[in-house]
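Memo to structure team: turn this sequence into structure tokens by end of day. - J.P.
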Amino acid sequence: MKKRVEKSSKEKVDKVDSVTDEEPPKTAGNLELDFTELCKLMGVKEIPSVKIKQSTPTNRGIMGDNHFQTSLESQMTTWSSKPCLQIELENEDHGSVKEVKISGWKVDEVVLQVLSRLLPSFSNLQCLHMWRAGLTDSTFTSIRNTVFLCSNLRKVVLEGNLLPEQSYHLLIGEDSMLTDLSLRNNHIGEEGAHLIGSALSTIHSANKNLLSLNLAFNSIGDAGAIHIAQGLRLNRSLLCLSLSYNQIGDNGAAHLAEVLGHFVLTHEEIVERRKLLIKGEESTMVQPSLVSLADSHERPLSVRSSSSLDRLNKTTKNPTKKKDNPKKDEKPAPGHAAKKEEPKVAKKDNKVPRSQAGKSAGKDNNLLVSELVSEQERVDETVIPLLDPGILHTEGKVIHPGNTCLTSMNLSGNKLTEQSLKVFLSSLEGQREGGLLRLSLNKNNFHSDCDTFLKIQKIMSLRDPLKKNRSGQVEEDQGEPKTTNDA
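Reply from structure team:
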């Protein structure tokens, strides 16, 4: 009898493997019916029910704390006594699945294999939400593979899923297309933060698509915050970052603040920068004489960067311009026209994230996200952080202008004192065009009426697009300066 049971079990596993090894269907069907039938075929004993709801239009902003708060409100989940798959449709068509949500019940490997078989066929699928789904390192791998197979899936919420190997970073690798990732309440510690920081960027690679990352309610601490700060040095896609309630103190906060302002390149970064200059990674051929000069002077470097950026800007602005003189054949003299255009080009480059971010308060979320993504792709084609036109050579050091792409940072509910606030103030005052638009610092270890905090509030009130009325004037705050408390 025992052998017969083992044989039956093995046959079910073989059946699962044979089904899931097939290519996913190219056309979407009815997820409710297909899910149930495939679960039966694979021998699932307790088949989860499927609940469908119609999509309701919402006007969601994506900037900073307001984005995270709106996201939190829209994702309120309740514990499910029985397994249930919640589906949101774009319209009345059962093939227009927009969001799939699993809330409060453990998902086993067989059910995940059913989902990996079905979900990639739904081209409208934009969001996968899994709250307390009992994921393991093994089932997480299955989820990651499914996410990468879904062509238009851009938002993933994995909250309350504790992975021993802390492998969440696999969702934000260099090949990831996700734009929004929430990893709240997963007990992510220093090791997990280290992996996530490396996924955001290293001197050799960087994520180019992720716009929003929510790491609230974890255990990142000072050591983990330093790793995240390291990942922000050369990342030029992330706009919104939440690190609220993560036991971060002054040391970790200071590293995060320093990345926002001017910072000194490390020896490894300088070496990589020289390699990029030699290889001509900005899509322009570099004369050997310019490469040798660029290591000791800023002018030749700026000429290279500005010529490349200027060519892109002119092409974008004048798509119908005649092609009598192709730009790639032009070789401007280092001492003339290219030098004059350098400040203008650098200014345009730095305004890209801020100009897009400043319009967020009055635009529809979907339209804004698509614009940000397309704009970011255009910038990524021309700008390499280690070849930023604003890099300076001073007193034997190579100074980088800092990360001015990040527009929102949430550090609420940590252990910051006025000591780290001074570093934030210095970085904010030194930021060029672009930079932070929202900074949440409430519920930390300092008084709300301390001088440094008030100065930071004054700077941020002038930048915050959500505090501006339609006429473009900044609204005056009444009484004590406010910050948004957001998870």
